[in-house]
Design brief:
The structure is a single chain. The chain has about 210 residues and is α/β, with parallel strands linked by helices. It has 9 helices and 8 strands. The protein has a domain of about 100 residues: P-loop containing nucleotide triphosphate hydrolases (Rossmann fold, 3-Layer(aba) Sandwich), CATH 3.40.50. Bound molecules: adenosine monophosphate. The site of adenosine monophosphate has 17 residues, from helix 2 and helix 3.
Amino acid sequence: MRLVLLGAPGAGKGTQAKKLIEKYSIPQISTGDILRKAVADGTPLGKEAKAVMDKGELVSDKIVLGLVEERLKQDDCKKGYILDGFPRNTAQAEALDGILTKIGAPLTVALSVDVDMDILLKRLTGRRTCKNCQQMYNVYFSKSAKENVCDKCGGELFQRDDDKEATIKKRLDVYEAQTAPLMDYYKKKGILKSVAGMGNIDEIFNKVCALLG
Ligand code: AMP
């Protein structure tokens, strides 16, 4: 299965992707995670990306496409993959189609995870991550037992720089303007499926599995 996950920041794409990779034994390719790693490692690419990410804007198509093309060439992608957070605009979607057409393995499905705006805002502003084990929490929906301490490993919880309020507004605006049009793009190709991404994580996952078959 070659799957693209669509949905606004905070829709829960990453959470569903984590469950899908277990079920289907295929890798998750999150351009956000790849970029955050480059930032944490302090690579030149990471330094360039950080300023853009902190503003809530999109990193250049050239950089992101280079990262994705490299990643798709790796052996573990032969059985399929889940693209999470990519493509983010029509230019990236067209470039991805070009790459996949060349290797004769087009996308199987684009799955959109749909969530109302008021919930998105709480999910994003409330999101906290463990510095140590990356376990995610939310101060509104799934608090840790002790404030700012990970239940699993006792690590310190932090808020992503781009989950601060001003950046979130920008990220959602960028989503509406640049990424939401991809729904139509994949609908026209006949591979778009949609799931309501609200409520219990496992219930959403069951709906996702029913859709994917
Ligand atoms: P995410 O974790 O997917 O919300 O990504 C966090 C940030 O990384 C975004 O706000 C962008 O600045 C950058 N980013 C992630 N994926 C892409 C992409 N496909 N194209 C451009 N920028 C991206």
